[in-house]
């Protein structure tokens, strides 16, 4: 069964743990994108009145808090805290749906907005009611015309059905790695470049049109739509007690069926690989979380996909990305290419992105191709250590996490490259698809 927007992630495993499917339940049941009619038949309209605290109901913010929903855009921030922060500010608020999915190894938001667009939009409408917003901005990258058409059609269906009391607007933004950061969206919506703002005021205080603004990932909002309908107790039936619920995961690399899967939080990574058709070759490592994520050696594959279990390994689920790297590939070369891409896609506004990140990418490339001098490793560690906590956004922090984890996970290869030059795997074709490492043509 193939998806309309996710090549090469074209297969879904209908047999795998269908009981865990929530966001993708309709897709598992029918194998086709849900129209508004399908959606209303299955779920009914978004319970906006109940979200506001109608008789006998639990207001949405409390329900989301009790469900312990966390953001699926990468950082895992508690969603109720954000809702509350925006709701508590005076003035009409704005909701921004972050459907940009700039992470190159992720397809989950594209997949979700293709097959269940109305769950995402319901979530946005419900969040708008909860924070007192009259406008919802849905943000997509400009070069994903299929995704734009699908969401545009879904919005038309809702308009024709006069379903929503808030204004829903679709926007196509420049596609760069950092233009999907929350303050980049706000800056672009305010007429500026799609680059991180960095400095205060914070978005929840003064964002789009100087109004309190809630920015949430598309998947987060879809979970919220289900919590509004079925309640926190239902939500907590999946996942772990600390981290309840399901999450979307994009599994790719050396697996038989690269897939977007829905899995309960706490599912071991080996199970996720099995659901993507099992590894096709012996593995060297997995990349967890995305380009701003962490390399983990295969010894850790039984670890559950949950923040609590991954934290001791210096890892986190991030944006729900799992890439299987085969033993035949060179982890150092793959990392060098990713760092070069991340360096090219920074906004070059702050020191760590202008100077530090390109220097780390160059050092890594030298290490990967075996041009390393004896002082290189110490220099690389030092420069990597200088990246976090110094930028106006978390972009350099993510790159530092990737670089540091590669030095740990591929420590034997580092020694080999330093002592003998590149290994045979260095000449292998790249295994992780990487967009061109050229700076964006436009930020507007
Ligand atoms: C460089 C960078 C890129 C980001 N890209 C995305 C993205 O593509 N999609 C997304 O939802 N969040 C992205 N984020 C996180 C957002 O800034 C923000 O935290 C998120 O949209 C909040 O939604 P959530 O709380 O529902 O996760 C990115 C952050 C950084 C630092
Ligand atoms: S840290 Fe980098 S990406 Fe973030 S605002 Fe500064 S220059 Fe831009």
Protein model, in words:
The chain is built from 17 helices and nine strands. With 444 residues, it is an alpha/beta fold. The protein folds into three domains: 18-235, NADH-ubiquinone oxidoreductase 51kDa subunit (Rossmann fold, 3-Layer(aba) Sandwich), CATH 3.40.50; 246-326, Roll (Ubiquitin-like (UB roll)), CATH 3.10.20; 331-427, de novo design (two linked rop proteins). A five-stranded mixed beta sheet has the order 6-5-9-7-8. It has a four-stranded parallel beta sheet with strand order 3-2-1-4, with helices on both faces. α8 (145-160) links the parallel β2 (133-141) and β3 (167-173). α6 (108-115) packs across α7 (117-131) and α13 (331-344) packs antiparallel against α14. Flavin mononucleotide binds next to β4.
Give the topology.
Blueprint: H1 25-30, H2 36-43, H3 48-51, H4 60-67, H5 79-87, E1 93-98, H6 108-115, H7 117-131, E2 133-141, H8 145-160, E3 167-173, H9 182-189, E4 213-217, H10 218-235, E5 246-253, E6 259-264, H11 269-275, E7 283-288, E8 294-297, H12 307-310, E9 321-326, H13 331-344, H14 351-369, H15 376-385, H16 395-409, H17 411-420
Parallel strand pairs: 1-2, 1-4, 2-3, 5-9
Antiparallel strand pairs: 5-6, 7-8, 7-9
Helix pairs in contact: 4-5, 4-10, 6-7, 7-10, 13-14, 13-16, 14-15, 14-16
Bound molecules: flavin mononucleotide and iron/sulfur cluster (SF4).
Iron/sulfur cluster (SF4) binds next to helix 14 and helix 16.
